Amino acid sequence: KVTVIGGGGGGAVSGTTNTGGGGGGGAIKIFSVNPTDVYTITVGAGGGAGSSGGFSRFTGNAGTVTANGGGTPTGTYSVNGGAGGTATGGDINITGGAGGSAFIIPFDGTNIPQFGGSAPFIGINGPPNGSPSANSGGGGGYTANGGSGLVIVEF
Fold first, then answer.
1. What confidence tens digit (pLDDT) does each residue in 62-94 have?
2. Which of 8, 55, 92, 97 is the most exposed place for a label (fewest CB within 10 A)?
3. How would you class 16 by CB atoms within 10 Å of its CB: exposed for 0-12, middle for 13-18, buried for 19 or more?
């Protein structure tokens, strides 16, 4: 069995909108292991603030399983949280959670910091306070880096 999770997207570049990056996508594939086979593994990096996360990939006798990284906030002034990454090639493919979009309180203009999106199978959002996501594949809150991807091979 292999579990593949893409890197989380970084949050907005500045605290102007306080939006979060998307969580990396995730996939699980069940396959037979042969000790003489060659496997190739790529682990996606978490995106820095304003950058998407990198893809994670497992390639072997069962084919290729890819989990794409989460996106970075979009729109004018990055008001939309980053989209979750997609996944392909698994028996189970799940899109990562979207990062939180801008939430500004009417009348006083207070901008509430938003969480980064969560990655499948892990279920923890990135923190909203500018700290990097410590969770594999989690998106970063505003001005924060997303968490690195993850590949787990079990046999």
1. 799 999 999 998 876 667 889 999 999 999 999
2. 92
3. middle
